[in-house]
From TrEMBL:
Entry function: This protein is involved in the repair of mismatches in DNA. It is required for dam-dependent methyl-directed DNA mismatch repair. May act as a 'molecular matchmaker', a protein that promotes the formation of a stable complex between two or more DNA-binding proteins in an ATP-dependent manner without itself being part of a final effector complex.
Domain DNA mismatch repair protein S5: 208-330
Gene (name only): mutL
Protein family: Belongs to the DNA mismatch repair MutL/HexB family.
Name this protein carries in UniProt: DNA mismatch repair protein MutL
Amino acid sequence: MPIRQLAPEVAAKIAAGEVVERPASVVKELIENSIDAGASQIRVDLIRGGLQLIRVSDNGCGIPAEELPLALARHATSKVSTVEDLESIRSLGFRGEALASIAAVAEVVLISRPRGALHSAQISACNGQISAVSPAASPEGTIVTVRNLFSAVPARLKFLKSRQTEVSHCLHLLQQYALAYPEIRFTVTSEGREVFATPGDGQLATVLVQMYGPAVARQMVPLSGQSADDPERPVISGYVSRPACYKSTRQYLSFFVNRRWVHSRLLIAAVEEAYRTLLLSGRHPLAVINIQVDPSQIDVNVHPAKTEIRFLRERRIYAELMRAVRRAVLEEAEAPSWQPAQ
Ligand code: ADP
Ligand code: MG
């Protein structure tokens, strides 16, 4: 075949594939948008593991009616504007392609009412076709409804696992965000039933009890906070499990760098190294770890899903994290159990 420029809708579907792999990827992008919008309450409703419906409602800053078409356009974002901005990303989103990608592979309805505005407006998109903006009724904030994900992309549907698997991917992800943002009230329903609701009281300890149960939460010890006198020094906080409490998978190791949920072999390795003499092989600790670093010390623009991250000073992060975990586990191992608040 000769070389040909792809039709825009074909190119859009290919690009969407990098962002939207499964329902959980849609959930992730939507709640990240709600968090970036400054929401203190986020509600997520799922039907059929998100394949039939994903709805994320927030009380964030909202989108003005005239900007709704841009919200669905590719490479349109309110979060970065210059190349320099990319060097110090403080928001979770920055690529301006999540909503466009989702709209390329699903039916999307976006309803929004900016804070203080009298009216709300809506726009919809069906597998890439975008409607005109029309009046709507809704409280302040934004409601994004995504229906029939991948119904027009049979190749992708084929690769999805059972509905139950998709539900558990979505719930795992939502648990992670609830742990990362204890100050946000998350309400999550699946098939119309409430799965969890966090109080939004700002206490990680409260969310830990809710997610992992009081027995496990009692086995978690806090990482001692470090002063940020040296701006290049990572500030590490969170909870790790006592060696008596472990899991057979690494699923309970959660890392947030500058409040972004990340997958990082480096961070996993640092934590596991701290437990090396304390846990038998095949046993893995639980951890919820927040790392704050200067944004110039990391690169989050590694992959469209933004869950991979590169550290400028890998060895330093590794060593500091290992030491912090080791210190917490050894020092606290003898201390009395931490009691969750009633
Ligand atoms: P990005 O998050 O990378 O900017 P998105 O495609 O996810 O790209 O969103 C495009 C734009 O739409 C955002 O920059 C933001 O201005 C707006 N937006 C999306 N979701 C929300 C929301 N829940 N509340 C307020 N604004 C939103
Ligand atoms: Mg986004």
